[in-house]
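Milestone M4 deliverable, item 7.
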Amino acid sequence: MITLKQLRVFTSIARHSNLGGAADEVCLSRGAVSQSLSQLEQQLGSPLFDRVHPRLQLNDQGRRLQPVAEDILGRVADIEQQFEQGSQGEMLAGSLHIGASQTIGNYLLPALLARQPWLQAAVTITNTRNLCDMVARFELDMALIEGENRHADLEAQAWLTDEMCIVAARDHPLAGQGRLTPASLAGCNWVLREPRSGSREQFDHQLAPYLNGMGRTLELSTPEAVMQAVEQGLGLALISRLAVADRLELRRLAVLDVGLTLSRTLQLVWHRKKYHSALLRRFVDVCREAAPG
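Output delivered:
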């Protein structure tokens, strides 16, 4: 008979790709984790991982089992939580693994978490492509992303509209000149986010086609680093108004108006086969409540 312990061990190994990480997560010894996996594979009559020392990588059979096992464990956790609430009269509580793109993670997510103090959240902040890869591997319960989801296994729902703007140092030659055109930016230096990020996708798709030649480019991996570089006169940047609002108010940076409407849609993303526990449903509701209209 397959046990919940075996499924917990299996899903943990799938997330960590090694016995050590899984052992720490499920609070068992490496030997107990290895034994539990062996028992599960014997019962199913098939190996679930390819042993590529020192990693264990899901094979086809393991990938078939993973969404089913995650679903079962999610439903069991939901049952346990509902009965704990009924007996103790407590508010919804528990933990989620949440991912967020840089702008969302730094400027929106803290306020969302403050609206649900009962939630214990393990948060991963990285670029959109990395987040989608993690959600596809069930390493995250869901993610809040700024870029495009390219995984067929993921469901993405539109969430918020984020205004983007072109910013420059206050002493940049184009600052304070009023209405410009994209042609005015020819030959300018740029400070860009790294490839795979939502902001870089926005630049490449919505702004770069209008630029007739670029000067030097500098790639940085966080909005804060980008803004610091722009302040130091290293180039222009396309960045979320959410991130740059304080610097604009303090007149540390200036917005260049080139007559383009630059915006993007922030999205909520989860695996299509992910079971939505009561806790996850509540977090999604809080996110949606934050959206205007």
